[in-house]
Design brief:
Blueprint lengths: L1 H13 L8 E16 L3 H4 L21 E14 L4 E7 L14 E11 L2 E9 L4 H5 L12 H6 L3 E13 L3 E10 L25 E10 L3 E10 L24 H7 L3 E11 L3 E11 L22 E13 L2 E11 L25 E12 L8 E10 L18 E9 L1
Antiparallel strand pairs: 1-2, 1-16, 2-3, 3-4, 4-5, 5-6, 6-7, 7-8, 8-9, 9-10, 10-11, 11-12, 12-13, 13-14, 14-15, 15-16
């Protein structure tokens, strides 16, 4: 039923329904199919780590079995109302109804006003202007089976709000773009930002997230920029009155008042650089900030905190590249996320380490990916490619089974077929 409705909308838009100066069109379709092969039975058999670190590593369930999966089935539409007013939408009917409900198939929805002189204002549902790969590299152009940890965890979710930008210059010499956005801040509520502020029980406070990014393109082949985002809990003030000191926080723990006053402050700051020409492609990104509401200490009803310190910080680094030989591209990526980069906690002993077995479940995860891409049209990689990736993961996100004693993990082989028009 859901797909039938989407198909009906697509038919109307693609037919170019017009009203005076209005136009509507189907801009493109992106389809991606995965085949995954686990290289270690630990991925299938072992439970998530019991030392508190596993909650930070989001292992896609598709990697826990040998699996065929539809990754993307995206439909892009846009239209103009006047010379300065336009709209755009992107649907993915492959998305399930949970956890966000029926709106989960609607990925992007923007209403834009472009008065000229480099100014643009848009409102709707979209990714906030933060991380490089998630917001400035289209899904059809990423080099690997999936985005790196910084981007898929911190930049890939949508939010609802207003985004203003100003662009100046020329990319052949120097082009700059200033972006400022105000949004609900529901990115971390389990819906991927596809809910209104007051959708969930106990939520709906007046505070909003603020986001800033400066981005630049210069000398044709280079891009660089930096960004900052700040927000707080999504709870109403009255819903925070139940905050208590967790029983496990015994050494230097904050008071209940301090926990409430902190309001799960959430930040993201980072910088990126990218280079791309006919032979080489390279990008590097660094991000850090406060975990805040991503792993909350405040809840509508009393609950255990999801992080180990009130001001717990994360740090991420991602470096990737490709060497291009016509249709044949050879790729590699180093990808690290540390969810407690300050190594702080309120417990008497390290909560990530097992004093008996010596197992270390510290929430620092590294993925090294090597790959090969067969690009169907080398001058237009977005048209389609076959990607083969071998993913090597650090071994600290699965619990040991008898007779195992140390931290466990597992690697994957992934084949991705992507077509787009």
């Amino acid at each position: 039923m859901k797909i039938t409705r989407i198909a009906g909308i697509a038919a109307l838009l693609a037919a170019g329904v017009t009203a005076q100066a209005q136009t509507a069109k189907l801009d493109g379709v992106l389809m991606e199919f995965w085949a995954t092969q686990m290289m270690d039975n630990s991925l299938r058999n072992n439970a998530t780590a019991s030392a508190g670190a596993s909650k930070y590593y989001a292992l896609d369930s598709r990697f826990q079995e040998n699996n065929f999966a539809v990754k993307r089935a995206e439909f892009y539409f846009s239209g103009t109302v006047t010379d300065t007013l336009s709209w755009a939408m992107m649907f993915d009917p492959n998305n399930s109804n949970t956890p966000a409900g029926p709106n989960n198939v609607l990925q992007d929805f923007t209403l834009s006003w472009t008065p000229g002189n480099g100014f643009n204002v848009k409102a709707g549902q979209f990714k906030m202007p933060t991380t490089y790969e998630a917001t400035l590299v289209a899904a059809r152009e990423i080099l690997f089976f999936e985005r790196n940890q910084i981007n898929r965890r911190l930049g890939d979710a949508r939010d609802r709000g207003i985004w203003a930008s100003y662009t100046y210059g020329n990319a052949k010499s120097f082009m700059g773009k200033l972006n400022v956005a105000v949004s609900n801040g529901t990115t971390d509520d389990g819906s991927g930002g596809k809910n209104n502020e007051n959708t969930l029980a106990g939520s709906g406070n007046a505070q909003k997230d603020l986001t800033f990014r400066f981005e630049s393109a210069f000398l044709t082949a280079h891009k660089a920029g930096f960004y900052y985002r700040e927000g707080q809990t999504g709870l109403k003030n009255t819903s925070m009155l139940t905050a208590t000191i967790p029983g496990t926080w015994t050494v230097g723990a904050p008071s209940a008042t301090q926990i409430r006053d902190n309001k799960d402050k959430t930040t993201l700051m980072g910088a990126y650089y990218a280079f791309n020409n006919a032979t080489w492609q390279f990008s590097a990104e660094y991000a850090t900030g406060l975990l805040g509401r991503r792993y909350a200490t405040l809840f509508a009803a009393a609950s255990a905190p999801l992080r180990e310190h009130l001001d717990q910080k994360f740090t991420g680094i991602a470096v990737d590249g490709a060497y291009k030989m016509g249709n044949h591209w050879f790729t590699g990526r180093y990808d690290m996320m540390n969810y407690n980069s300050g190594d702080n906690w309120y417990t008497a002993a390290n909560p990530y380490k097992n004093a008996v077995t010596g197992a270390d479940f510290s929430p620092k995860y590294t993925e090294i990916t090597v790959g090969y891409n067969y690009v169907f049209i080398p001058t237009k990689q977005s048209a389609g490619k076959l990607k083969l990736n071998y993913v090597m993961r650090s071994k600290n996100f699965l619990a040991p089974l008898a007779p195992q004693t140390t931290e466990q993990g597992g690697n994957s082989l992934v084949a991705s077929l992507m077509l787009s028009y």
